[in-house]
Amino acid sequence: MSVLKIEDLKTEFFPATLLPAEQPAIATACRTFQVAHSDLHSSNLASGMPSAPTKPSTWWHSNKNDPKDHVTVRYNRRKGGDRVHVYRDGTGNMNPHKPPKRLARGSEAAQDEELYGSDCTVEFSDEEDGDQ
Where does the record place Basic and acidic residues bias (predicted)? Predict the structure, then answer.
């Protein structure tokens, strides 16, 4: 069985100078979302993108399809699409071009759902790869 370490994901921000104080929280949310979803396990890079350039730039934004505050993120090596919306709590929407759906957890329809929550615990480790 493969074990995914949370440190395996590098997060980049474009532009890097935009609101640097918010970037650590965004990186944590991106890692939490990656760990919770098998489609993202092979990704080792997440690129955060700000809101539309016509507005004052900010990381957290909303739109008509997704009224919840989110950051638009591109994960490399993602299966089935290029963008996801990651919310402040580490949950997200794998297909942000569609409005989010809400289904009962555990229902048959929820297994095919495109909106995923995160029920995992994120633990950061200072150990090196060989010091296990």
Answer: 63-72, 79-88
pLDDT digits (tens, 9 = 90+) for 29-64: 999 998 888 888 888 899 998 887 666 789 999 888
Q: Under a CB-based contact definition with an 8 Å cutoff, are residues 70 and 83 in contact?
A: no
Does residue 71 register a pLDDT over 50? yes
**What are phi and psi for residue 124, nearest 5 degrees?**
-95, 140
Give me the residue spans of the domains in the chain. 8-50+58-116
> Which backbone phi and psi does 22 adopt, to 5 degrees?
-85, -15
What distance lies between CA 57 and its chain's CA centroid?
Answer: 19
